[in-house]
Design goal:
GO terms for molecular function: oxidoreductase activity. Keywords: Oxidoreductase. By secondary structure, this protein is α/β, with parallel strands linked by helices. The chain has a single domain, classed as Rossmann fold (3-Layer(aba) Sandwich), CATH 3.40.50.720. α4 links the parallel β4 and β5. α1 crosses α9, α3 packs parallel to α4 and α4 packs parallel to α6.
Amino acid sequence: MAKLEGKVALVTGASKGIGAAIAKALAAQGAAVVVGYASSRDAAEAVVTAIRAAGGQAVSAGGDVSRAAEAAALVEAAVNEFGHLDILVNNSGVYGFAPIEEITEEDFHQQFNINVLGLLLVTRAAVPLLGEGASIINIGSGVTTLTPPMTAIYSGTKGAVDAITGVLARELGPRGIRVNAINPGYTETEGTHSAGITGSEMEKSLVTLTPLGRGGKPEDIADIAAFLASDDARWLTGERLVASGGLR
């Protein structure tokens, strides 16, 4: 029997990259999945099609996680389609890099609104529907360990995710709800390609510093998420798993 059989999962930001891989991994373990997206409807539908082609259950749902009503609508989509909710993966995120002299208020609000406020709003909407044994998985970042230059805003958002994960683990633990974070290191995605990171000197430097000798793949993170969503991780909460191939 698949480890997530009978479970329902919502994955935000699941139209591509790490989110898409997580949605597929959860579905492969038997979960019915809501593939959340902000604007890439066609890409989200492609993920749904791939899951269904593999024998899984999935639907897509659009919404801006930084807006309360739209965040709540994503959660409602899971209940309306599949009847309940057991797993929430807060994966939606944006990033931007700039030296301190060049950061703007717009940069700050864009990243904090999606990466932090969005996580809080979706979680707030989901918690009343989650029962004992439910799992919340927040996707943070290895930048909170590395603290690289020119990432003051982005690293700040992911530091907030680390702290929120710990707070919610304590707050929701008495209700049997587990809350953990996965903090990926350098992971090759559509985003790293479009940002010019993949194939760059930056990538080469990161790989050189990685003990396992390569960059991460979305599937590397997805398998960890599937574990955290399952009862195999029943004694884990409040943890921050740095999934970086040893990069620190």
